[in-house]
């Protein structure tokens, strides 16, 4: 292999690929980045067997070839390169990398051991969505996914593409987040994507901008950003019928300032520190919402906020961290809380006088207070 690349493009390619390189791997090749020079382009690939990253950049090739280099080492070297073209030459055993006056010799790894990446089928269904809208959808929904690897189905986000919309849903059985947005170019299909992988794709969407092409296939889903690609395996199993969990009616509606409620919740919840599963109780009535938390070891705290209340007053208790996550997800200045009684799930939605509001539903199970 012998090639010449622009420093900025090469650094960007290495940064993109190494996002999937793990520090603890069972297969040494998984800690590497595969560089393949062919047809005037350099293809950089990396994978952790769950997520695969690939990027293609233009380069000047004197000799085509393929080498596998340690990902972390390559990333650290590139981050400190001077502002000059990068020249790479060598074979699988020893690679010379020159940038300006700096020269590095890196021992290669066995490229034959690098796992084959499953590129998306050109004929597979593809949809296009705006990158910023996609990133926002993932940020709002993925937070509700479970971290319990013992229940792998709940660690994923269900993507349902139908009727011109992309709907994402996640639940850890204590809360449920559902959000839809319109496609720019519609596709149909359903995929259960690991939340971690989807969050990586959302991060990439924020970095690259523009539009994201989503390729839905049996067993995997790919996210394309121009010359970049992230492909992730899907989770096997059936996601819960979340639509059946959504309440079809409510008795009380509360409109409250989101930031004020979040700040009050954080203050009141301080007394819950050090005692697991200490809830915060919200009492709605007489034009206010009263927050209260009690910890037998540390004491108690209370705060009241003004609120618009339509319906009967009631009290309901929540896990403060889960409630705060819901408040953060809505993003609007005011939120709408829909309630039936103190023992049934509450629903949080963004609230604004503007019709352009996110189609977000955040359902939260109450906690029983003895």
Describe the structure concisely for a colleague.
The chain is α+β, with helices and mostly antiparallel strands.
Helices and strands in order, then pairings?
Elements: E1 2-5, H1 7-17, E2 32-38, E3 41-47, E4 51-58, E5 60-63, E6 65-70, H2 71-79, E7 86-90, E8 94-99, E9 102-107, E10 126-130, H3 131-141, E11 156-162, E12 165-171, E13 175-182, E14 189-194, H4 195-208, E15 211-217, E16 220-225, E17 228-233, E18 252-257, H5 258-268, E19 280-285, E20 288-295, E21 299-306, E22 308-310, E23 314-318, H6 320-330, E24 334-339, E25 346-351, E26 359-364
Antiparallel strand pairs: 1-5, 1-7, 2-3, 2-6, 3-4, 4-17, 7-8, 8-9, 10-15, 11-12, 11-14, 12-13, 13-26, 15-16, 16-17, 18-22, 18-24, 19-20, 19-23, 20-21, 24-25, 25-26
Question: What does it look like?
Answer:
This protein has 3 domains: 2-113, DNA Polymerase III, subunit A, domain 2 (DNA Polymerase III, Chain A, domain 2, Roll), CATH 3.10.150.10; 126-244, DNA Polymerase III, Chain A, domain 2 (Roll); 247-364, DNA Polymerase III, Chain A, domain 2, CATH 3.10.150.10. It has helices at 7-17, 71-79, 131-141, 195-208, 258-268, 320-330; strands at residues 2-5, 32-38, 41-47, 51-58, 60-63, 65-70, 86-90, 94-99, 102-107, 126-130, 156-162, 165-171, 175-182, 189-194, 211-217, 220-225, 228-233, 252-257, 280-285, 288-295, 299-306, 308-310, 314-318, 334-339, 346-351, 359-364. The longest helix is centred in the middle third of the chain and has 14 residues, at 195-208. It is α+β, with helices and mostly antiparallel strands and 370 residues long. The model has no long low-confidence stretch (mean pLDDT 92). Helix 1 packs antiparallel against helix 2, helix 3 runs antiparallel to helix 4 (195-208) and helix 5 (258-268) packs antiparallel against helix 6. It has 6 helices and 26 strands.
């Amino acid at each position: 292999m012998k090639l010449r690349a622009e420093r900025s493009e090469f650094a960007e390619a290495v940064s993109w690929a190494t996002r999937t390189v793990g520090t603890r791997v069972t297969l040494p090749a998984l800690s590497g980045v595969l560089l393949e020079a062919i047809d005037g382009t350099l293809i950089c690939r990396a994978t952790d067997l769950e997520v695969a990253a690939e990027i293609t950049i233009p380069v000047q090739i004197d000799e085509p070839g393929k080498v596998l280099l340690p990902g972390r080492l390559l990333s650290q070297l590139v981050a400190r390169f001077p502002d000059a073209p990068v020249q790479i030459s060598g074979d699988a055993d020893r690679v010379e990398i020159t940038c300006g006056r700096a020269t590095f010799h890196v021992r290669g790894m066995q490229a034959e051991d690098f796992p084959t990446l499953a590129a998306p089928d050109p004929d597979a269904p593809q949809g296009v969505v705006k990158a910023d809208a996609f990133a926002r959808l993932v940020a709002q929904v993925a937070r509700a996914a479970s971290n319990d690897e013992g229940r792998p189905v709940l660690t994923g986000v269900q993507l349902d593409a139908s009727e011109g919309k992309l709907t994402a849903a996640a639940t850890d059985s204590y809360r449920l987040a559902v959000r839809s947005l319109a496609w720019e170019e519609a596709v149909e299909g359903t995929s259960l994507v690991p939340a971690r992988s989807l969050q990586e794709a959302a991060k990439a969407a924020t970095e690259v901008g523009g539009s994201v092409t989503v390729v839905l296939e049996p067993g995997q889903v790919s996210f394309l950003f121009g010359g970049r690609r992230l492909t992730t395996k899907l989770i096997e199993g059936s996601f819960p019928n979340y639509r059946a969990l959504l309440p079809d009616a409510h008795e009380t509606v509360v409109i409250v300032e989101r930031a004020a409620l979040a700040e009050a919740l954080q203050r009141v919840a301080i007394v819950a520190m050090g005692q697991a599963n200490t809830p915060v109780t919200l009492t709605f009535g007489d034009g206010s919402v009263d927050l209260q938390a009690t910890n037998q070891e540390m004491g108690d705290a209370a705060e009241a906020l003004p609120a618009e209340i339509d319906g009967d007053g009631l009290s309901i208790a929540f896990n403060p961290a889960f409630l705060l996550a819901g408040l953060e997800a809505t993003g609007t200045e005011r939120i709408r809380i829909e309630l039936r009684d103190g023992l049934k799930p509450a629903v949080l939605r963004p609230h604004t006088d503007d019709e352009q509001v996110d189609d977000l539903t955040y359902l939260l199970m109450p906690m029983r207070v003895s």
